[in-house]
Design brief:
The structure holds two protein chains of two kinds. By secondary structure, chain A is mainly α. Helix content of chain A is about 75%, strand content about 0%. Chain B has one domain: ABC transporter involved in vitamin B12 uptake, BtuC (Orthogonal Bundle), CATH 1.10.3470. In chain B, strand 1 and strand 2 form a beta hairpin. The chains are: A mainly alpha, B mainly alpha. Chains A and B meet through helix 6, helix 13, helix 15 and helix 19 of A and helix 4, helix 9 and helix 11 of B.
């Protein structure tokens, strides 16, 4: 099935991913101690400060350029997460959009003579327009077939861009004029560091907004069980397409920015399956269900990749290292680092008094409040009682709900072959 | 295009299609027994080709003799891979995660080949390398015929094994309905492991056949992965006859297109077919009703 990880209930208290269900979300809010929120806010501020000050504290231009590379990875991984994280559709071929954005930007500058950043935005539009038909075709299949199609798309583009040398420069490469020809190299890196950071910030805000929207909830429903979501009236096809196009466009913008920064494009590197793999690896490693998961993964993997490049240089061992990392992540922590660390912290924190989302005392208080409002205003009482519905059943009711979900997840793949005939 | 040229490319297409069919059959085996899409198949193919080259280099004997070593070795690797890696994935996400896992295996193999034998292009020189025979006016290289014969032989053996042996019966039962197979006493886990091994054994044979005629280098497997994946999607995931037919049709198509378009553009037929299939019949032309769900 297409979900990127198993069907755990989405109410992840510690990390603040809100539950899609209304009552549970409101119930979590009062229970979370204010300190956790403050800690997260402080961490966010420190993180932003670190990113913003990095160009000034970087010891040499090489480290600075490595920082730009890591940020560009973070952009691609976060863009990937618009599709992979929300819908659970794993695309190994997002490098196609990266390369397309890069080449569109480069060619618009070279052949049309547009200013660099206008070309960048138009390049994003080109990727958007190309992605719509591709997405319609690719999203007709799920799971492994989707992965195959996504890989194929990179391979096609690699083939086309290599073979069509007259237009794209082929294997000779395409030189993209620099937007700031007067700047020295370190200053150039510095400017692009902030540009990538800005793009990343835009993406993170978008992801955050989608995560909290009805649209995002629909996408997550696709991740958990596409057939059920469809049966419940979620327009899965359109939702998936919008998510795919958004993801591709952001990847394309990151590619265009990369083209402006790096200034030299070669099909082998732009349409590389490795780049697509890095995106998946980074997002999975950090945690696809979390806003900052891909960013964290990008920092870890990106730094690792730069290190391997220095250390092993020409040998193929960086492939082996990537392979081992990917294997370990897939086998041992498909949910990523953030959930793993969060659960570790939860172990040291105060124990949950029950497996329920809200404690018995809170439930009692809520019910009392509901009853009180019911007596005072009869018209609001109906909705309040209805809202409390799922939690009325006591511990048994809630426990049963959870076990049903896990059981369902375990059963589904086994019923596959049976339906297949 | 003259008739001779047409016939020539037709013959070459059939020969190529045979090899594709053998390799795609392996892929559908994995998918059948485990619902696993094995990205690493073509990497193992290149590994087998390298082993054949290395064997030839060291002993000077015919690379076909290396099959005596590589086929059992690959079988054991397949069983080990299924038992040690694939079964560790959670059932709910098996299909998706298996792609990433086998992708990691492919990268690992590519990296190790590059590390051990370097990235230099290699080619086996055989006494019969340059020879060709004339068949109804078409020139056919002997090595291509040998490769095709090898593919045809192993596809035939695979068919017989699946059709008439007890193991084949158990394997087909596991593919069709795992629970029912378990109920009648088939140890489906073991059968799945053997099925995986069988798939990898076909990669050993295919790789050796490939090494006779092709220049090999570590990243060559990317050139194979696209066409092979396209074949199994066009044929319908998990359908062995579908894979065979699609392999033959696309192999011949590629060969015919090579004359007017050239090698690179002829490759695109696989992807055109892939996207056309998605638009017309997402489950593939021979696939089951739910093939598109995996």
């Amino acid at each position: 099935m297409p979900n990127a990880s198993d069907t755990r209930p989405t109410q992840d208290v510690s990390t603040g991913t809100p539950a899609p269900a209304g009552p549970a979300a409101t119930a979590t809010a009062p229970r979370r101690p204010g300190t956790a929120r403050i800690v997260r806010l402080v961490a966010l501020v420190v993180g932003v400060a670190l990113v913003l000050s990095f160009p000034t504290i970087a010891p040499n231009p090489y480290i600075l350029s490595a920082g730009v590379v890591v940020l560009s990875y973070a952009c691609t991984a976060t863009a990937w997460n618009f599709m992979g994280g929300f819908t659970g559709y794993v695309s190994l071929g997002h490098a196609a959009f990266f390369g397309l954005g890069a080449y569109a930007t480069g060619l618009l500058i070279r052949d049309v003579g547009l200013p660099s950043f206008v070309a960048l935005l138009l390049g994003g539009v080109v990727v958007l327009l190309v992605t719509i038909p591709v997405g319609i075709a690719a999203l007709r299949v799920r799971g492994a077939s989707f992965v195959i199609v996504s890989i194929s798309f990179v391979l096609i583009l690699l083939l086309v861009f290599q073979a069509w040398g007259a237009f794209t420069g082929g294997s000779d490469g395409l030189v993209v004029p620099r937007p700031f020809p007067d700047l020295l190299r370190p200053e150039h890196h510095q400017v692009f560091f902030y540009l990538f950071a800005a793009l990343l910030a835009v993406m993170l805000v978008c992801w955050w907004a989608i995560d909290r929207s009805r649209f995002g909830t629909g996408l997550k429903a696709v991740r958990e069980d596409e057939d059920k979501a469809q049966a419940l009236g979620v327009p899965t096809r359109n939702y998936k397409l919008v998510a795919y196009v958004t993801s591709a466009t952001f990847t394309g913008l990151a590619g265009g920015l990369y083209a402006l920064w790096f200034g030299d494009l070669d099909p082998i590197f732009q349409f590389s399956i490795m780049l697509g793999t890095y995106m998946v690896l980074m997002a999975l490693l950090g945690g696809v269900r979390h806003l900052f998961g891909p960013l964290l993964g990008a920092v870890i993997v990106g730094v690792g990749l730069e290190y391997f490049k220095l250390e092993f240089g020409d040998t193929q061992l960086h492939l082996v290292a990537t392979a081992l990392l990917l294997g370990v992540v897939v086998l041992f922590m498909p949910d990523g680092i953030i959930p793993a660390v969060a659960s570790l912290f939860k172990r040291f924190g105060p124990q949950d008094s029950s497996i329920r989302e809200i404690t018995a005392a809170e439930l009692l208080e809520r019910n009392r409040a509901a009853a009180a409002s019911a007596t005072s205003a009869s018209e609001t009482a109906g909705s309040a009682v209805e809202d409390d519905g799922p939690h009325r059943g006591g511990p048994d009711g809630s426990a049963r709900g959870t076990s049903e979900r896990t059981e369902d997840a375990a059963r589904r793949p086994r019923s596959g072959p049976k339906e297949d005939r | 295009m003259t008739t001779t040229l047409l016939f020539q490319s037709l013959v070459l297409g059939v020969l190529l299609g045979g090899l594709y069919a053998l390799l795609a059959a392996g892929l559908t085996l994995y998918f059948g027994v485990m619902r696993v899409v094995m990205i690493a198949h073509s990497a193992f193919l290149i590994l087998a080709a390298y082993l054949a080259w290395y064997f030839n280099q060291q002993t000077g004997m015919d690379p076909l003799l290396s099959l005596v070593i590589t086929v059992p070795l690959f079988f054991l690797m397949g069983v080990g891979m299924q038992r040690l890696l694939i079964t560790r994935l959670r059932p709910a996400t098996l299909t998706m995660m298996s792609v990433l896992l086998t992708f990691a295996v492919a990268l690992f193999i590519e990296g190790m080949i590059g590390f051990v034998w370097s990235g230099t292009q290699r080619r086996i020189q055989l006494p019969y390398s340059g020879e060709s025979i004339t068949f109804l006016g078409a020139q056919v290289a002997v090595v291509k015929l040998v490769a095709f014969a090898l593919a045809a032989l192993s596809l035939g053996l695979l068919y017989l094994l699946l059709k008439y042996s007890r193991f084949g019966l158990a394997l087909r039962a596991t593919i069709q309905h795992k629970e029912a197979a378990q109920l009648v006493g088939i140890k489906t886990d073991r059968v799945a492991g053997f099925g995986f091994g069988l798939g990898l054994a076909t990669a050993a044979i295919g790789g050796t056949a490939l090494s006779l005629d092709a220049t090999i280098y570590p990243s060559l497997h990317w050139h194979w992965i696209g066409p092979l994946m396209a074949i199994i999607v066009v044929g319908g995931l998990g359908s062995i006859p579908g894979a065979a037919v699609a392999a033959m049709v696309l192999g011949i198509g590629q060969s015919l297109l090579q004359v007017p378009l050239g090698t690179t553009w002829a490759q695109t037929i696989f992807y055109v077919a892939l996207f056309a299939t998605l638009m017309l019949r997402p489950q593939g032309f021979f696939g089951g009703r739910l093939a598109q769900r995996f």
